[in-house]
Amino acid sequence: MLKIAVANEKGGVAKTTTAASLGAALAETGKKVLLIDLDAQANLTLALGFDPRTISYSNANLLMNAIPVGQIIQSTPFKNLYLLPSNPQMGLAEQFLPIHQGYEFFLRNTLSSLQSSFDYAVIDCPPYLGAVTTNAFAAADVLLIPTQAEYFSIYALQSLMNKVKQTREQINPQLTYRLLLTLFDKRNKIHRILREQLHKNFPTGMFETIINIDTKLRESAIAGSPVIYHASRSRSAVQYRALAQEIIQYVEETKALQPA
Ligand SMILES: Nc1ncnc2c1ncn2[C@@H]1O[C@H](COP(=O)(O)OP(=O)(O)OP(=O)(O)O)[C@@H](O)[C@H]1O
Ligand SMILES: [Mg+2]
């Protein structure tokens, strides 16, 4: 199982949209995918058509009360796609996790028990770098950082890069990262300039796929159905499928590097 954490402390950069769309695009290829909603806003849970108010157990119970993961996992209406849901109790997890010794590794330990049950785990993080996001960074193989081609978004990458460095030093030396340009408008000159700047600053750290602005993504979140299913032929569906292919290729390349 490859574990991908979708994170950025900047709000509204398409973390949740990317987790839902990429997860669905991977599932569509026949891979078994576990989506993990770590945000108290529960947007990923909503985007898959669940009502967080009616969920009896969420990731808050997983992290704080050690409720077995099997009691929390939900199957979704979409083939090969499963969900570890969130609800507002995740706010309590953020607050109280740090009183537990070794709390950074709670998610990693849970996922190690699921290692052979799924091909991919895609973790949606809240828009801050607190105790819950630290759990995601400790558990992940790859950090997927959605970013907009806006000055403030690029500025915010600095503190994220510090967090990556600290994570590698302290809890997860193997962690790699890739940036994904989202909400891109190619008619916007600033967007084009900042895209070039990002490519210069992160020559090997960016996905080739870029996600353009597409209103179908907003509609699909409201419909509770990932864009891959909601608007199968839309531009964003095509782009998220291309992103899934880049990730599948990445897994094959890293496998080839490992001794048999
Ligand atoms: N490529 C896109 N084109 C148009 N709208 C988009 C695109 N990507 C995301 N959106 C919309 O932008 C808004 C923010 O996206 P999203 O909720 O995925 O961001 P986020 O980073 O998860 O936000 P938060 O930091 O609050 O968790 C949503 O309304 C979403 O539907
Ligand atoms: Mg979100």
Structural overview:
The chain has 260 residues and is α/β, with parallel strands linked by helices. It has a single domain, classed as Rossmann fold. The protein is 45% helix and 17% strand. The protein contains 11 helices and 8 strands. The protein has helices at 15-28, 43-47, 59-64, 90-96, 106-112, 131-139, 151-170, 189-201, 215-223, 227-230, 235-257; strands spanning 2-6, 33-37, 74-75, 81-84, 120-124, 142-148, 176-184, 206-212. An 8-stranded mixed beta sheet has the order 3-4-2-5-1-6-7-8, sandwiched between helices. A hairpin with a 5-residue loop joins β3 and β4. α1 (15-28) crosses α11 (235-257) and α5 (106-112) runs parallel beside α6. It binds adenosine-5'-triphosphate and magnesium ion.
- Total DSSP helices: 11
CATH homology group: P-loop containing nucleotide triphosphate hydrolases
Annotated CATH topology = Rossmann fold
Strand proportion, as a percent range, falls in 15-25%
Low-confidence stretches: none
Q: What is the helical fraction, as a range of percent?
A: 40-55%
Average predicted confidence as pLDDT: 95
* Strand order within the widest beta sheet: 3-4-2-5-1-6-7-8
The total number of structural domains is: 1
Spatial extent as radius of gyration = 17 Å
Which secondary-structure class do the elements indicate?
Answer: alpha/beta
Largest sheet: 8 strands, mixed
Which descriptor suits the 3D outline? globular
Enumerate the distinct ligands.
adenosine-5'-triphosphate, magnesium ion
The beta-strand count equals 8
CATH architecture: 3-Layer(aba) Sandwich
C-alpha termini separation: 17 Å
Give the ordered list of helices and strands: EHEHHEEHHEHEHEHEHHH
Top-tier CATH class: Alpha Beta
